[in-house]
Design goal:
Radius of gyration: 25 Å
Number of helices: 8
Structural class: mainly alpha
Distance between the termini: 55 Å
Order of helices and strands: HHHHHHHH
Number of domains: 2
């Protein structure tokens, strides 16, 4: 099975984004699981492509898309458990606004740490222009010389 088949013929990105997001609500609602239980169900399901790829020789593209689609209901179930207020939620009920603010601050903090680390590593180890880029290839000057053109 090729990546082209999965990506173009089956439309995996569209399918994953559109159809799998409400799966967490379906597991918690009509299936009768509470929100935390549905989170653990999807946490177990996301191990299937990892095990399949690692030990059962599952195609890497199929394993990727399987895991990618399961992240949607897993994340939605966990977020619902943290934030959805009563009477709709049965979790911590911290509220969607406060949780959005907390996760937004955490996201901004993670991005800031990555940027700061990248800048400090670049300052300590500046990129080095290699000889192959600094000098033309042998005989590039057209006169048989091997040094740079002056």
């Amino acid at each position: 099975m090729s990546a082209d088949f999965l990506n173009k013929d089956l439309g995996m990105p569209l399918w994953a984004s559109t159809l799998m997001l409400p799966a967490g609500d379906f597991a918690a609602g009509p299936l009768g699981l509470d929100i935390l239980a549905s989170t653990f169900v999807f946490l177990a399901v996301i191990l299937v492509p990892a095990v399949g790829y690692k030990w059962l020789r599952l195609n890497e593209v199929l394993a990727f898309w399987f895991a990618y689609t399961i992240t949607r209901p897993l994340g939605a179930s966990f977020a619902d458990w943290l934030s959805v207020p009563a009477p709709y939620g049965d979790g911590l009920q911290l509220g969607t606004g406060p949780m959005s603010l907390v996760f937004g601050i955490v996201l901004a903090g993670v991005i800031a740490v990555i940027v700061i680390r990248h800048r400090s590593e670049t300052a300590q180890n500046p990129p080095v222009l290699t000889a192959s880029l600094a000098e033309p290839a042998s005989g590039a000057a057209g006169d048989g010389s091997t040094g740079p053109i002056t």
